[in-house]
């Protein structure tokens, strides 16, 4: 059900621009908060510039979490999902750049996005380099509006039965544990996942946990280098005092 693409395909473009809203997620390297923001009006605020470049107009809001996180580390995920009869979720994994309204590049980039693009109170354009596209079923996303047997449309949110049908079918075939074994044992970044899936794969749990810890430390190379620098400085200062 999950598919990955190196870039945005034409059918992805049609899907994204036809949705009523999208979501933007970001996080700092360290801290308690992970930010998730809904963004409306994609037709006026979102633009696909190339197969690996998108941008959206960032309107003035009550906070600036996404902007702050991009300035720190650049990590952004954009998600579109269908609330219509054809379920789908699409994620764009990106590295972002903030182009503020006062920057020289702002007007040029806005023109590149299209004359119809714009929001009142815009403070920046978020330019995103898309390095991976992911699509998945979206069975768990509710349906807005539903046509009854009589042909009348019921307004509001309605649960889909797609997810229940799929899981029931997998359970009947006794295929759900195998699916979890192959799909739920680790994250996209290689972090350890569902423990039962890891056991089913015969992983050495302690070794895998230690390796994940080492990889996490290695990714924080700047903190490691600062620690080494401080330790070296303390040692040199201590030696100088001892020699005196």
TrEMBL record:
Parts forming coiled coils: none
Top-level division of the source organism's lineage: Eukaryota
Keywords for the protein's UniProt record, in alphabetical order: Membrane, Transmembrane, Transmembrane helix
Membrane spanning residue stretches: 223-242
Keyword hit for Transferase: no
Annotated Pyridoxamine 5'-phosphate oxidase N-terminal domain residues: 8-133
Name of the molecule in the record: Pyridoxamine 5'-phosphate oxidase N-terminal domain-containing protein
Organism of provenance: Lepidopterella palustris CBS 459.81
Lineage: Eukaryota, Fungi, Dikarya, Ascomycota, Pezizomycotina
